[in-house]
Amino acid sequence: MNEIFKEYEDKLTPKILEEVKENLPPKASKSVVKKILEAVYAEYLESRADPGESVGLVASESIGEQGTQMTLNTFHLAGVAEMNVTVGLPRIIEILDARKTIATPMMEVYLKSPFNKGKDIRKIAMQVKDTKLADVTDEFSINIRDMLVDVILDPKKIDDLGFTVAKVQKLIEKSLKDMNVKAKGNVVTIKLSGKDVGINDVYKLKEKIKNAHVAGVKGVTQVLPVRRKDEFVIITAGSNLKDVFGLEFVDITRTTSNDVLAVATFLGIEAARETIIREVLKVIESQGLNIDKRHIILVADLMCASGNVQGITRYGIIRDKASVLARASFETPIKHLITAALAGEEDLLTSVVENVMLNQAIPIGTGLPGLLSKPKKAK
Amino acid sequence: MAEVFINNKFMGEVEDPKQFIARIVEERRKGNLHFTVNVTYEKDLDSIYVEANKGRINRPLIVVKDGKSMFTDKHAEQLTKGEINWDDLVKQGVIEYLDAMEEENTLVSFFEEDLTPDHTHLEVHPTSIIGVATALVPFSNFSPGPRVLIGGKNQKQGLGLYAANFSVRMDMDVNLLHTPQKPMVSTLMYELSGYDKHPQGQNIVVAVMSFKGYNMEDASVINKGSIDCGLGRSTYFRPCISEELRYAGGLTDEICIPDKDIKGFRSEHDYRYLEDDGIIYPEAAVSEGDVVIGKTSPPRFLSSMDEYNLAIDKRRESGVALQHGEIGTVDFVLVTENGEGNKLIQVRLREQRIPEIGDKFTSRHGQKGVIGLIVPHSDMPFTSSGIVPDLIFSPHGIPSRMTISHLIEIVGAKVGALGGHYVDGTTFVSDKEDDLRAELLTLGFREDGMEAMYDGETGEQILAKIFVGNMYYLKLRHMVANKIHSRARGPVQLLTRQPTEGRAKEGGLRLGEMEKDTFVAHGASLLLKERFDADRTVVPVCEECGMIAIYNVYKNKAYCSICGENVEINAIELSYAFKLMLEEFKSLGIYPKLTLEDKY
To answer: Is B597's pLDDT higher than 90?
Structure first.
């Protein structure tokens, strides 16, 4: 049996061979297997792109045409205050541009056993959540006469965190510079130092300390424990892979983020490629569109080919194009031309845009095949 | 404790926000605070915002106290007698102005009879919640908001009697509807805006049915007989302007019939309408190329090269002629002078526009469409009473747009036309649909506005009953005569040698970036090359330095301006735009060296 498969090792990809192996009918005879493999090979050849096929343009048109539908179909549900996720065209643009900061970063935090069984899941989730001062405070009040801000803490919430008032006072003191912070009972008092302290400065201070970090993972604004099959997963709004990986109960091997660049940094380029594909497909599916996965894979491959995630922008993959003219034809032409001229670059006119500019046959489709002939040797 | 902000600046806190706000409002109504000061209480944030800034839109409302309107019959009486005016009502605190924020704290009643003790304000009139243009749509409370807005917008493009003194005006690009009418169905706004002094449309008979597919996709079928009777007939006016400018050195333009030896002389034929003063006479029928105002200007520059030029003192032609595709009749000639005292000639051209296929018409409900077919009067369907519709509107325009007001107007205007009275369609307070239907029944018609109709060509009765009635229709200013355009070969731009752009310049239709991409995606490489051949050129290139060389036709010899004659120079074919780009590179300080290679 294996000899037959060996025969096809050069013709078919390992993955296909494996799938065929798995799905063979039981007790298939050698001739049947041979027939099956022959049929698979024929199908494989059929589904390959022809030489000279402009796969890139077909991919971009396939995504682009559906993208116009997407803009029209994007609508919001007024008044629904659940986790608000960027979807639709804005999300696609964000992924393909490889933005450093995305609009709604999210993580799926998987937990190690036994933490993932659902016991105390709420408490575990709260340890992930970024707790701000406002979350543990009853009231912020301004004392206009003495120019003070009184932070009246909620003793129960502080207890829940396992904190003391003194610890909170230390944290506030650390987050502010040169301020007089005192604790008395449940009240932490902040006095503004310096001359000419106006009422608006006190108000600004009050708004500022509301957001002081107290506990949890920085940047995680919401947590939502969800049941996945027989375990619990924490979905978060806000992404901070670095700090989450530092928590003892987190399963690092499965935890992911929708922030492609963060994934590339902490999990590697292959993971980033998968994330791009997964995130783009997610948007497309949520919009009820039908785009072939291979178009997106092509885009993701292109973005990750260099080893770093590069956006489809003039600072990303466009900068790596071989042709000077092709680069110049995409945004900020003069900048590209001057840098190319300084390096003394040569444009070999091997791709599409350059040849369109010159009005020469483009090396695609009918323009690709050339005529090879052996000239007669002159005597 | 509620935080108080005045003009968005934190000011302090108050114990009782309700009382604080009541106090401010009271002082404003008394006149102690300016009437544009507004105050809002934001409950969730527990803060009070007092606004006295500029840039807020305020809106007048009648104050209501304990469920009773402050505006009483006494006020109404005094107003009609002219004893008090609007400002007095504001001063008395009967009417107050609210901004968008303060409105959040109010409960405004639409009608006086709906008032309850909870209400704080009453609308001055239900129509006051919509704008001037939108209020021109009758029965608009029966249609979706967006359609009503479109309906209001469309009316701004309608042709009508835009100014009564049009015959002595020199307007740019204006139209005049020949027989405008007052609408059968109107709204309060028609009265307020003096619409009957500048009407825009005509009352016509509309049947809602399909007609051989010529009214699909928002087209309309129109009756040739109606057009012959003057439906939608308009005149288009356009001025030609020229002035005698004075230049440095005592040189001036001259309005005259140009001499033959002038630079840029057109042809004897083109100047044939000009009278001795160089200006065309009224009622001359002109067309493309004909000169309307003859003018010559002094030579442009006197550069050093001109000293050797024999034609140094040649004046150039600078008259005004009709451009490509333009026709018209000279309507009015005006000779005057402008602010600087230069002689100014204005000639107004007139062109009658009879509705043709492609001209745009609309009802007042955002139901615009173009004429798809003009049918002879004899072939139009007719009702049992012999009424032939002027226009056939497609029923498919109704379900998706849900413009019910369009349908109600048909019934309303039908009742008005048959009953001999105008119908009120003012938003929210219009004549009731049920009353209109009842009246239609008493007039001897089906109350739903449907009628049996007969095919005009065969005389057979149409199986379905057809919804037919009167309607106010407007001709919009978009007419095919101003838009039709085609080109095979034609003018090219001087700089790039690519076809010109736009109808006015007889331009080409661009095969743009994305269209180009479709060629590439299909792999139609050679077809793409052929399509972009418009600016194809052959240039000699020096193999030595890779720059564009010079070819001397007389000597049949090519040479390079850098490397001289003893270098190999080969001709290559490329787009002129690229050759231009290479030269632009040089101007940037970039040396674009071409390396030639054998093609095969």
So the answer is: no
Q: Is B173 a catalytic residue?
A: no
- Which H or E run includes A338? helix A333-343
Asked if residues A206 and A191 have their Cβ atoms less than 8 Å apart, the reply is: no
Q: Which CATH superfamily is domain B503-588 in?
A: RNA polymerase alpha subunit dimerisation domain (3.90.1800.10)
Interchain pair A362, B516: CB under 8 A:
no
- Average of per-residue pLDDT across B555-581: 92
Residues B291-337: tens digit of each pLDDT? 999 999 888 765 555 555 555 567 888 999 998 888 999 999 999 99
Q: Do B12 and A360 touch (CB under 8 A)?
A: no
Number of neighbouring beta carbons within 10 Å of residue A30? 10
Which H, E and C letters describe B190-213, residue by residue? Answer: HHHCCHHHCCCEEEEEEEECCCCC
**In chain A, where are the structural domains located?**
2-46, 55-75+83-105+258-312, 106-130+218-253, 131-215
Cα–Cα distance between A144 and A203 in angstroms, integer? 10
Residues 4-43 on B with a CB inside 8 Å of A are: 9-10, 12-13
Cβ of A361 within 8 Å of Cβ of B522? The answer is: no
Q: Which long-range contacts (CB under 8 A, 24 or more apart) does B439-448 make?
A: B439/B415, B440/B411, B440/B414, B440/B415, B443/B415, B443/B418, B443/B419, B445/B414, B445/B418, B448/B411
Taking the C-alpha atoms of residue A239 and residue A258, their distance in angstroms, rounded to an integer, is 8
Largest CA distance in chain A: 110
Per-residue pLDDT band for B95 (boundaries 50, 70, 90) equals very high
Does B524 sit within 8 Å of A57, measured CB to CB? no
CA-wise closest residue to A231 among A84, A130, A124? A124
CB contact under 8 A, A357 and B581: yes
Of all residues in chain B, the one with the smallest CA distance to A360 is B529
Spell out which residues of chain A touch residue B529, defining contact as CB-CB under 8 Å: 359-362, 367
State the pLDDT at residue B247. Answer: 86
Instruction: Using CB atoms, pick whichever of B525, B533, B573 lies closest to residue A364.
Output: B525
Is the pLDDT at B407 greater than 90? The verdict is yes
Give the domain ranges of chain B.
2-124, 140-233+357-475, 239-353, 503-588
**Chain A nearest-CA residue for B2:** A141
Enclosing H/E stretch for A326: helix A324-328
CATH class of B140-233+357-475: mainly beta
In sequence order, what E strands does chain A have? 106-110, 131-132, 137-143, 148-153, 180-184, 187-191, 213-215, 222-228, 231-237, 256-257
Residues in chain A predicted with pLDDT less than 70, given as ranges, are 71-84, 194-195, 379
Predicted pLDDT at B235:
95
Which one of B5, B15, B525 would you mutate to disrupt binding with A, by most A Cβ within 10 Å of its Cβ? Answer: B525
CATH number of B239-353: 2.40.50.150
CB B10 to CB A203 under 8 A? Answer: yes
CATH class of A131-215: alpha beta
CA distance B583 to chain A (A): 14
Average pLDDT of chain B is 92
CA distance B497 to chain A (A): 14
